[in-house]
Amino acid sequence: MKLKGTITVFLSFLLVFVTGLFFTMSEVVRYWCLQGQAERAAALACESTMADYCRPLWEEFGILGLDGGYGEPVLRKQVYNDRLAEYMEKNGRPEGVSLMAQYPAVSELADYHILTDAGGRGLVREAAQHMKDTIPEAALNSAREMGKDLLSGEGGGSETEELLESGKKAMDAGKKNQSRDEDEEKVIPEGLKTLETVTGTEPDKATMDKIDAAENPIESVGDVSATGILDKVLRGKTVSGAVISDDRPSKRNRAEGTEAGRDATLAEKELFKFWAGNTLQNYLTDYGRSGLKYEAEYVICGHSSDRENLQGVVSRILGIREGANIAAIVSDPGKSGQAEAMAWGIALAMGMPEMKEAIKAAIIGSWAYTESVLDLRLLLNGGRVSLMKSGAEWTTPIWMIVPYLSSDRQANNCSIGMTYKGYLQGFLLAMFTDTAAMRSCDILESAVRQDSNYAYFRMDNCIYEVRARETYQASPLFLSYVLILQGNVQTYTFEYPQSLSYIS
After folding, report:
1. Which DSSP symbol is given to 305?
2. SS (HEC) of 7-32
3. Would the pTM of this model clear 0.70, i.e. be above it?
4. How far apart are CA 115 and CA 208, in angstroms?
5. Contact in structure between 230 and 50 (CB atoms under 8 Å)
6. d(Cα 107, Cα 454) in Å, to the nearest integer?
7. CA dist., res. 283 & res. 233, Å (int)
8. 469 phi and psi, to 5 degrees?
């Protein structure tokens, strides 16, 4: 027996309507799912592209940067766009059959910031971020005060030279006068620098005998101070002969990003200088990097060779130590009295007692210079030197000025005080941030180029922040079953611009 089915016209229209409503609602759900997926896929594609950061730059220095040259010495924006499109494709089209497939329509790098822009402010901010969790605020404040102390002590070197020059003039005048008749008027140079001292107790007889037998230090120390201080301090130790190429960020016309990015705050600038002091190599710290061995010294002085940079830092420390040691002598009655006794002996031997004060000033200068050289030897061997030495910390007896200077002797180690690294940190804190940042870029570029995969790496191609245009498109799926909507909706477009920075 056959059953016959019938359907009314009304029911037919109702079935078409219900079916259309079902597929329409299904497409609406799919649309919102596609929209959410496009948003997530666009963010992931941007993050994936920026995940191709320069590994040596991060591993050696804690700085994140995308090599925008992709192995070439020029920034290649199209390569970035192609890689972004590749990641968008992978994220937007799941493998196999999927109802959620969509494809990239636009993948373009719109804006980008480079680490060297505006005097290296990107590097400054990144380095500061790297240090925020490792340097407590108390240490920052302590180092800031120490840097001020160092700056207030600079300039001692020129003062010592003036004292030695005064003593030499006095002695030259004495030699001239000794060759004249007693009735002839003595020649006394005008404008001799004198040093106001504290009158001290007279040295005992044993000390006086040593002072009398001591070699006159003025001419000997004066001759030494005019020659290279580095060789006098290191006494034959090996100095790196490395040099840096003239093709470096601070010297060339640099590529620039589309925007410079936000300027660094004062706190970020200080943290950046802590980063430089803690991350860069120096005379006492070798991390095994090729290129310049004295990286912190280069940032401070900016010369092309390690030797010149070490010479520059040593000369700066010498100036600070001379100023402090002159003050230590003048404020100590015993040392001041010994200097006066030696000055009297030299002045009377020349028959010119009126030149005693100028000679005394030169003796104090030569004494401070010798103690400073011994301080530098200690610092370059990893020791500590107090900013202002006490009598117990003083090393050089007045009658041993010349022998100590000519020997390998170094100063007595102080229980508290500044290390060589501490002086470097103080110099870095005193620098203009832009100068320190660009010289740091020189160091980073040179170090990264030692990796054969980054032979053409340039810091002025190194991107740290991007804004990218990303657009996905997808075709309707269930609307083909809705007769009234067939052909009216061709594609869906989902545009999700992305901004991403290595700096949080």
Report:
1. B
2. CCHHHHHHHHHHHHHHHHHHHHHHHH
3. yes
4. 64
5. no
6. 26
7. 13
8. -90, 125
- For residue 383 the two structure tokens come to 């020791």
pLDDT of residue 485: 60
Residue reference for tokens 């940067």: 65
Tokens 């104090």 belong to residue? 364
Average pLDDT, consecutive stretches of 10 residues, N- to C-terminus, the chain (504 residues): 66 71 76 88 94 94 95 93 92 72 90 94 94 72 61 51 51 47 40 38 58 62 63 89 93 89 90 94 93 96 96 93 92 89 81 81 90 95 92 90 88 91 92 96 95 94 95 80 63 90 91
Q: What confidence score (pLDDT) does residue 65 get?
A: 96
Give the model's pLDDT for residue 228: 74
- What is the number of other CB atoms lying within 10 angstroms of the CB of residue 497? 14
Residue 190 burial (CB count, 10 A): 5
Q: Where are the domains of the chain?
A: 10-118+458-501, 143-244+302-418
Structure tokens at 133: 């969790």
Of residues 395, 385, 389, the one with CA closest to residue 426: 385
Query: Is the Cβ–Cβ distance between 62 and 132 less than 8 Å?
Result: no
26 φ, ψ to 5°? Answer: -60, -40
Q: Phi, psi (5° rounding) for residue 439?
A: -70, -35
Q: How far is residue 504's CA from residue 499's CA, in Å, rounded to a whole number?
A: 12
